[in-house]
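Notes from hallway chat w/ T.B., transcribed later so I don't forget. T.B. wanted the structure written out for a chain they're using in a teaching module, and asked if we could keep both sequence and structure tokens in one place. Agreed to drop them here.
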Amino acid sequence: MKKKSFVVFTSFLIVCLSFLYSCEEKYEIQESITGIYLVANENSRIVGQTLELNVNTDAGENVTDQSSIFVNGELLEGNTFTTDEVGIVSVRAEYLNLSSEVLEVEFSDGSEVNFRKRALVEDYTGTWCGWCPRVAKAIELVDEQSDDIVFVAIHRSPSGTQDPYVYGEADALENLINTPGYPKGFINRMTQWDFPEPDNVGQVLSFTQGANPKLGLAISSEISGNQVDLDVDIQFSQDFQNLRIVVYLLENALVHPQVNYTAYYGGVNPVENYVHDHTLRATMTNILGDPISNEESLTGSISTQSYSFNLPSEIENAENIEFVAFVIDENDEVINVRKSEINASQTFEILE
């Protein structure tokens, strides 16, 4: 009898230990969640634009898919919201037994939006041009003082000269500015940079001051093999008419001797291993600009200009490519400009 009781007790003990071991294997300590909060992709939106909402725990875990999101008290399907009405929306989230603080997001008509103001300098230059290093030096001085200036070097080659980087499709632009001789720098396309340019850095910088523009640009590009896909988005915060867009493809870090009659760069002539940056290689548009539809340039609108093309054969290194896009008015003056490296995706530079 005792033997039978011992066997029963032993079996019972084994079962209990197995159960405890099993529980120990499956038991996980779950950290307590003390709170949740909402994260929006933007603090303000223009009517018609999408507001994306995510729910995070205080520990930083994204629990959006397990949460309920309410906009103005109504349950939202998914985690995106848009409206055609101007005003402030109130958003809150619930997860388990927790509620977030209320997040308020303003939807506006876009008219109060201002964009970062940038300026364009087009430098008409040449490797053969002995006085051209003067403008190149001035560009360096400007670049040291501001990140808001976009530079383009347009290499020209009049009769009797040679330049490996000559851009032969700029005759229409030369006719527009109607200013013979080299070098010459033009600010925002139509204002000539005063001579001597290194002593007039402030003239260029002044174009970044004053009222901020009511349109901004964002460039996105992707290269696959020899194929380039490029999008230029333009956002408007007032109504515009008769606008045009210009898109350049530039190449940096091109090394070639530069004739030099100046005292800059050590006064050496020629400057061997001179590095030519911001060199215009191709235009994705007419050099004087392609029209932007008046229907697309209204307050709150975003116009997307798309381009697909093969890299020009003269490109030496695709990693040194940059794009420049700018919008000009009916007087051929630049309203705003943006540059971008390749394989980048920009957002609009909206001022808070």
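Follow-up for T.B.: The domain at 36-108 is CATH 2.60.40.10 (Immunoglobulin-like). Might be a good example for the class.
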